[in-house]
Amino acid sequence: MRDHFEIRDHDAAGRIGRLSVPSAGVTVETPALLPVVNPNVLTIEPRRLREEFGAEMLITNSYIIRSTDRIRDRVLEEGLHDFLGFDGAIMTDSGSFQLAEYGDIDVTTAEILDFQRRIGSDVATPVDVPTPPDVDRERAERELETTKQALADAETADTGEMLVNAPVQGSTFPELRKAAGRHASGTDLDVFPVGAMVPMLNAYRYADVVEQVRAAKRGLAPDAPVHLFGAGHPMMFALAVAAGCDLFDSAAYALMARDGRYLTVSGTEHLAEMTYFPCSCPVCAEHTPEAVREHDDDETERLLAEHNLHVTFEEIRRVKAAIRSGNLLELVDRRARGHPAMLDGYRALLDHADELERTDPVSKDAFFYTSHEAARRPEVRRHHDRLSRLAVPDRLLLTESNAPSSHDYDAVWRVKPPFGPFPRALSETYPLTAEVPDRVDDAAQAAAADGVASLADAAPEAAITLGHDDWCAEALRRVPDGIAVENLQTLGQ
């Protein structure tokens, strides 16, 4: 099963991995974007997707191919790779999207998997039921049982070397998503898409997306490759990867181009309203918005689609670089400033800091405190948890200022928001090397106070004094009653 997936690097719940696809004879590095290719309308030739944009894998719809007389026999004869002119890995959908849109399709899991094998798909999909968000629980449970049967049918099908998707459904019920993830992970299937996300993605419900992904991840094995079905806007890749997703499929580059829309990492612009292109991709470097508008509709659509792909693949590469450098959450923070819904998603992600901490590296590049959300990052939680490992002297001074030249304490430790207390010998260790602004906000002070409380809990017999730099009322409220507190701003007045 997951012998096909190897994890190389971690940051938060994001990872760089290698997905081996035996039937294609290739290995796909994740996070990976799979451009959606409509077999009836090739906006950009699949060959160019690989050669010019760096796509290692794409996705197309086997149900459409099977249902379209003029291409079905040709694909069966030539094979999917030759038909599309693409020598990377190809994933195929089963018609589940059509099932969700139109209510019924005329194919079973056994039939569509056999067809996907015959046309040479590399990663096939059973006919699961994509239960939309916000349905009643009875429907979600009923349709989840149908999806489980589809996975059982997939396990018994003759799939040859094809990898097979095991979709994780459950609507907007986290406990059902977790149970579905556990069930899917117990099969001998290979890739695990979190399904029925498109309605939430289209509605910018990024916090709900994060909650459902994290719920599915709690059920899935740690080494399970996770595909976020329908996620194609570059503004949310960093967030989705930090939540634990590895694969994305994007029709957005083509659909938005058809509507005259121009993708950026912070949102979507309308070509009709643009005076300048903010991007330096080949399309934007060689054209002005006015020049693109002057082309005929097909050429304008093609140019917009090319730009949309360039900015989308650029963001995937940026996310990979952030994972390798250990600053993925800083990238998520920057993207969260581009749209209120992204900020909701980031805050929802930090609600699961305890889960992120399990895979977050203990040492990285410098921690940058650039917003009050950073006070909730997993590194802060880890520091608080590890305070119990330290030997605490009987009489201890905690201070934000330099240690006094003479004192009556057994030791003087530093206090640094948002982390709280630590021995000065640890000052050069991660994350205590953090870059923090001089004007520390209330959230950082409150987090530091939580660190003081954690230390006091670990050493209840110690006499601790805290010297703080005019902390806010909420931070002082969190300091335990048994700790002596001095405001360094007013000391001696």
From TrEMBL:
EC number: 2.4.2.48
Keyword list, A-Z: Glycosyltransferase, Metal-binding, Transferase, tRNA processing, Zinc
Zinc among keywords: yes
Annotated Gene3D superfamilies: Queuine tRNA-ribosyltransferase-like
Involved pathway(s): tRNA modification; archaeosine-tRNA biosynthesis
Cofactor details (free text): Binds 1 zinc ion per subunit.
Record-linked SUPFAM superfamilies: Pre-PUA domain (SSF88802), tRNA-guanine transglycosylase (SSF51713)
Active site: D93 (nucleophile)
Chain residues that bind Zn(2+): C279, C281, C284
Domain of life (superkingdom): Archaea
Family to which this protein belongs: Belongs to the archaeosine tRNA-ribosyltransferase family.
Record-given protein name: tRNA-guanine(15) transglycosylase
Organism the protein comes from: Halorubrum laminariae
Lineage, broadest ranks: Archaea, Methanobacteriati, Methanobacteriota, Stenosarchaea group, Halobacteria
